[in-house]
Q: What sequence folds into this?
């Protein structure tokens, strides 16, 4: 392993980890061994990390349940799917040119809730030293999800209409903006409070709709001349999942990437035939088999942010030691945008 001369090898680092599944109380703040980069991996001294809803599901043990069908994690575990920092070591001789560079990294195996993290070289993108770490730390997991929903799960066409459910969250707030960058026409976002609705409008959405109102689908139809939207990005679940079909246009695409309210009632797929609609599921780790899409997504996100076309929204910055509070804020739906962790 090759590293900066000023860096000492193997020092313990502070991290948030858990040794059993459960509530926020299982999160521990303490010393962990420094990870060692292997071939085609980089060791990054983390400046900023961030919190995703996926981290909460990991902590709860959701992905380790047989019925989830998405594998799981080994304990003890350090969550954290993204980070910004400086490369201090490389596992491969051919990657030594990365040492000393500031990067944004996607870390699908976790580890971002720590002062140092290992990331695959292919999942890192260099950013200018002067770049705002806060903006880029909010990008990888949420941004890749939003980008791939609109370019891989479907390919948004110029002028098409898009409805983003839960548009005030980390993924939703980026999806609204990315849809516009990609040439969408009418872009609508939903949320549950007036404050969040104002936030969605500030992102450039054509309208923001309260999905807790019984007539929310009528508002979508009004915005689309009664036709409905071409694409729905669905992350709420429960009764909202079913109501989506009241405002999905003929040939519309219904894409599911979450279910914060739970899975809802079973769905009869033959009903899609009535309007030639489609329904697609999305789970970001599956895309790890298509590295070219991950790389293209990371480069798109960095470029759009540097050009100020994409504005990641920062909800709060908390010390690493207060990660449990970050989980609470996210679980209680008290935030708009992304919660960052300061690892210093």
A:
């Amino acid at each position: 392993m090759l590293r900066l001369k000023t860096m000492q090898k193997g020092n313990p680092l502070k991290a948030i980890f858990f040794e059993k599944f459960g509530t926020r109380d299982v999160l521990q703040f303490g010393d962990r061994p420094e990870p060692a980069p292997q071939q085609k991996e980089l060791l990054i001294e983390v400046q900023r990390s961030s919190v995703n809803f996926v981290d909460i599901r990991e902590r709860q043990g959701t992905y380790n349940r047989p019925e989830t069908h998405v594998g799981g994690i080994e304990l003890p575990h350090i969550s954290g799917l993204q980070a910004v920092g400086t490369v201090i070591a490389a596992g491969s001789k051919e990657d030594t040119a990365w040492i000393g560079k500031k990067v944004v990294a996607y870390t699908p195996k976790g580890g971002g809730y720590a002062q140092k993290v290992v990331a695959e070289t292919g999942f890192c993108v260099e950013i200018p030293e002067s770049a705002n770490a806060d903006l880029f730390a909010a990008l990888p997991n949420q941004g890749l999800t939003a980008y791939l929903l609109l370019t891989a799960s479907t390919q948004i066409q110029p002028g098409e209409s898009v409805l983003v459910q839960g548009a005030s969250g980390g993924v939703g707030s980026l999806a609204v903006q990315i849809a516009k960058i990609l040439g969408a026409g009418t872009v609508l976002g939903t949320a549950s409070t007036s404050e969040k609705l104002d936030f969605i409008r500030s992102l450039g959405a054509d309208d923001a709709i309260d999905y807790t109102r019984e007539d929310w689908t009528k508002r979508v139809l009004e915005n689309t001349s009664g036709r409905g939207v071409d694409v729905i990005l669905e992350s709420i679940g429960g009764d909202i999942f079913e109501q989506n079909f009241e405002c999905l246009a003929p040939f519309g695409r219904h894409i599911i990437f979450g279910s914060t309210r739970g899975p809802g009632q079973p769905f009869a797929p033959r009903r899609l035939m009535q309007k030639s609609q489609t329904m697609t599921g999305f789970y970001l780790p599956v895309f790890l088999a298509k590295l070219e899409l991950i790389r293209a997504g990371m480069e798109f996100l960095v470029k759009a942010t540097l050009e100020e076309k994409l504005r990641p929204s920062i909800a709060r910055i908390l010390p690493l030691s207060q990660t449990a509070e970050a989980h609470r804020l996210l679980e209680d739906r008290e935030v708009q945008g992304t919660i960052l962790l300061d690892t210093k």
Notes: The domain at 2-138+313-342 is CATH 3.90.180.10 (Quinone Oxidoreductase; Chain A, domain 1). The first strand starts at residue 2 and ends at 3. The CA atoms of residues 65 and 275 lie 35 Å apart.
